[in-house]
């Protein structure tokens, strides 16, 4: 999470009493504040007012209350704040002299040296941007940071492997279209028809791979999916809400 904050221009803080009580949430919020990231507080608990350490960070900032107004109105307000911040940032960038400009002024007496320094800086900047993009991509590609319905086929396979469900993983290994949404449909079937779904999976596993699906492994599979769809951890719940907001913002801005 520290890396995600370092690579971000702005940070959303989903304010609620459970969020304030979480030591992990506090350390992440304070780190974003220390790194001088642009913080936009989001009110997620009805009539909640930040106090204590959360009040110090968020009290003076403009909040977006998702409990007071219509969801779409709150989302539009959030998008407006993002656009306003981007406009201010772009204006400040254009009006402020860059380090490269200052160096070029100092080195005007030596054009060759100036050109060499500028080329080196451009190369370094390009490498830095590539490294930053790769690091950000690695964060976004972690299935733990996304709600299950946005998982790719590879995410599903990684999840099953991490949960020691390789016997079930073999069923979907070569089914490239089996993504997070497909896993969600399967989970709903497991809920509504536990025994019949088990029989279907066991039969397919036996026919395709000459293996048997232990019933306790099937129960473990359903249990792990239930944890993903019904998070009890406040951080997972907030992550789920943020991904919904993120998806909506991308639809409207891009």
From TrEMBL:
InterPro entries per record: TIR_dom, Toll_tir_struct_dom_sf
GO term, biological process aspect, one: signal transduction
Domain TIR per the UniProt entry, residue ranges: 1-79
Domain of life: Eukaryota
Entry protein name: TIR domain-containing protein
Taxonomic lineage: Eukaryota, Metazoa, Spiralia, Gnathifera, Rotifera
Pfam families tied to this protein: TIR_2
């Amino acid at each position: 999470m520290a890396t995600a904050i370092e690579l971000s221009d702005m940070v959303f803080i989903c304010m609620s009493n459970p969020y304030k009580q979480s030591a992990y949430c506090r350390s992440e919020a304070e780190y974003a504040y220390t790194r001088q990231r642009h913080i936009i507080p989001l009110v997620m608990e009805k009539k909640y007012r930040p106090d204590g350490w959360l009040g110090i960070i968020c009290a003076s900032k403009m909040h977006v209350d998702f409990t007071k107004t219509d969801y779409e109105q709150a989302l539009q307000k959030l998008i407006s704040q993002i656009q306003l911040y981007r406009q201010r940032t772009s204006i400040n960038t254009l009006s402020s002299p860059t380090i490269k400009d200052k160096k070029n002024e100092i080195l005007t007496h030596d054009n060759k040296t100036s050109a060499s320094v500028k080329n080196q800086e451009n190369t370094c900047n390009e490498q830095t941007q590539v490294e930053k993009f790769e690091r950000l991509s690695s964060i976004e590609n972690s299935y733990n940071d996304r709600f299950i319905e946005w998982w790719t086929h590879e995410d599903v396979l990684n999840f099953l492997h991490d949960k020691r469900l390789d016997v079930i993983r073999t069923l979907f290994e070569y089914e490239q279209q089996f993504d997070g949404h497909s896993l969600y449909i399967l989970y709903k079937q497991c809920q509504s028809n536990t025994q019949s779904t088990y029989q279907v999976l066991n039969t397919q596993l036996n026919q395709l791979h000459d293996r048997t699906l232990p019933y306790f492994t099937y129960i473990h599979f359903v249990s792990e999916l239930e944890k993903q769809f019904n998070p009890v951890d406040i951080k997972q719940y907030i992550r789920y809400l943020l991904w919904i907001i993120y998806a909506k913002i991308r639809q409207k801005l891009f």
